[in-house]
Prior knowledge:
By secondary structure, the protein is mainly β.
Amino acid sequence: SPQVSFTLELEFSCSILLDRAEVTLQATSDSTEVTPQDNVVKLSVPIRYEPNLFLSSNTNLHRYEVHPLGTFTRSSSPEFTTTVKVQNLGCYPIQNITLHMALPALGHHRATIMSVTHVLAENATCVLQPPDEGTEVVPVPPEDLLHVER
């Protein structure tokens, strides 16, 4: 018996979201069929949409110099701004997104090298919290950083 193979390409609209695609295939012939119901097949395929999130960040200070132990002044400068943006490039709205950011704020002997002065949140809720008690902070001796730029 002859066989036919073909490919269906379906293009979905972002304005109407579907949970499944249904296709009915039917073959006919000029001969008399004993079991014509064998010539019909109904396919139902679930549709799953993937989120298309884009995460970007930008800062106005690309280099920060940490001074050797004992030479650091108590001023809290320079202040710099980092902007983090999460964009939804997909078809459908996404809810309850959580973004965790770990800021490298402690140096040798847990000395504070950076602190967040203020948070400006647009269309988001931001919560500042210290790391969990169980989080292990591995100290890096200053001599290990002598030949490292970053």
